[in-house]
Amino acid sequence: MDTKYLENWLRDAHAMEQQAEKMLKSQAERLVDYPELQARIEQHLEETRHQSERLEQAMSGMNIDTSTIKDLGGKLTAFGQALGGMMAGDEVLKGTIASYAFEHFEIANYKALIQAAENAGQTGVAHVCRDILKEEEAMADWLGQHIESTTTQFLQRDDDDNLRAKR
User: Fold this and answer.
1) What structural domains does the chain harbor?
2) CA nearest neighbour of 27 among 36, 18, 37
């Protein structure tokens, strides 16, 4: 079976993880007032670094190189997102929502990759993608369970800041 789509999608996944790493690193640095969220983002940052490594190993096993152009594009996109978020007063909330959406984007990609790998007889690649999928689903679940509490915490901080400003 032709593996051209699998090869291209693996390059896309690698670039996606490069983007995620940059985005998570930038986000984690600015979450000092949200220690629980910061800790989970930092944990997922480490997972993301390992995901990139596992993808590189799987790609190497198929003699596929990463795409420098796609990786650079992903990093530039993440930089733009981080820069835009830094200027928003509600950055923590926008970042949480963006991360939640991005996790679901990754989940969909890994589901497609698993199917493509299985169809191509690349069971090792499918296994790697299944492991990564579990981590992405866990992060999406965690974010989904904490959107309300993060929103409440943000709104409380904003109210406290407004009270201090009025004094």
Assistant:
1) 4-166 (1.20.1260.10)
2) 37
What's the pLDDT at 31?
Answer: 92
* pLDDT cut 90: percent of the chain above it: 64
CA–CA distance, 117 with 135 (Å, rounded to integer): 19
Q: How many residues does the chain have?
A: 167
Give percent above pLDDT 70 in the chain: 80
Name the pTM for this structure.
0.84
31 contact partners, CB below 8 Å, separation of at least 6? 37, 38, 41, 92
The half-sphere exposure of 29 on its side-chain side, counting CA atoms within 13 A, is: 10
